[in-house]
Amino acid sequence: MLPDTFSHLMELDTELIRLDCAALHIARDAYPGLRIGAYLERLDALADRVAARRPGLSIDQRYEALREVLVEELDYRGEGPPGAADPELCYLNHALERKRGMPITLSAIWIEVGRRLKWPIAGVGLPGHFLVRMDDPEYYIIADPFDGGTTLSLTDCRRLLDKQFDGALEFSVDLLAPVDTRTILKRMLGNLRNIYLQSARFEPLLPVLMRLCAVEPENGRHLQDLAAVCCKLGDVPGAHACLTEYLRRMPEAADITIVRRNLKRLEAAIHTRN
């Protein structure tokens, strides 16, 4: 796996990673001709429209400015059920163009507009439904960009979680804590991985798994998944390279014997082809 721009971004400290740039690099895998600069300019323009309202310092006024521009004026909102199995809804460029997306892609737009204005806005990784929060020294606002920017109380968040998991997952205020950029990217890619796996679309799944390896290098599962997909696509040398990298990163892994055995089988297959 040769390093690329996205991989270099993931080598930065998490607080230095720009969500918009990284998410658009992910989208470029599905849209090779994508011009990242053009979409960054769209986000700049959205921030300018919000700033033109001169909302002041109040968190309530800033929230209202975001909602009025992004939802009331421009109609950015969710489409279909939050977990819809349409990969296009997972890509930031699609959300910016079509003004429709999954909860996490629409939240990314809110977060990036707020970041440009230096406002305290962050993602909230509520299981099953991504949200945003805006913080004030005394309180915070939770909003749902997928549902037209509606504000949510703690009770609303609990009901949303119960709806997603039929009450099987216990609600905690800790679930509303701000999450960092790397966590958001991991969840974006996880959504894509699940969609492509469910539909057995292995070619677009390949770059998604490569991005997950870069976002979360300490998780050996991604390399093993990548090796399996390489095998599905007939890329035996690629699978061998993934498992070799797994051994390098995870020398103390519990399944090391199994991985070495699989490597020997791949080596035999490579020699047979030669």
Strand-helix topology:
Layout: H1 5-10, H2 19-30, H3 36-51, H4 59-73, E1 77-78, H5 92-98, E2 100-101, H6 103-116, E3 121-124, E4 131-135, E5 140-144, E6 150-152, H7 154-165, E7 178-179, H8 181-198, H9 202-215, H10 220-232, H11 236-249, H12 256-273
Parallel strand pairs: 1-2
Antiparallel strand pairs: 3-4, 3-7, 4-5, 5-6
Shape: elongated
What integer value in Å does the Rg equal? 21 Å
The description of the largest β-sheet is: 5 strands, antiparallel
Spatial order of strands in the largest sheet = 6-5-4-3-7
Number of domains: 2
Estimate percent helicity. 55-70%
Following the backbone from N to C, one meets helices and strands in this order, namely: HHHHEHEHEEEEHEHHHHH
Could you describe the 3D structure shown?
The chain has 274 residues and is of the alpha+beta class. The chain folds into two domains: 5-181, no CATH class; 218-273, no CATH class. Helix content is 58%, strand content 8%. The chain has helices spanning 5-10, 19-30, 36-51, 59-73, 92-98, 103-116, 154-165, 181-198, 202-215, 220-232, 236-249, 256-273, and strands at 77-78, 100-101, 121-124, 131-135, 140-144, 150-152, 178-179. The strands form two sheets. The protein has a five-stranded antiparallel β-sheet with strand order 6-5-4-3-7. A two-stranded parallel ribbon has the order 1-2. The longest helix is centred in the last third of the chain and has 18 residues, at 181-198. The relative contact order is 0.10.
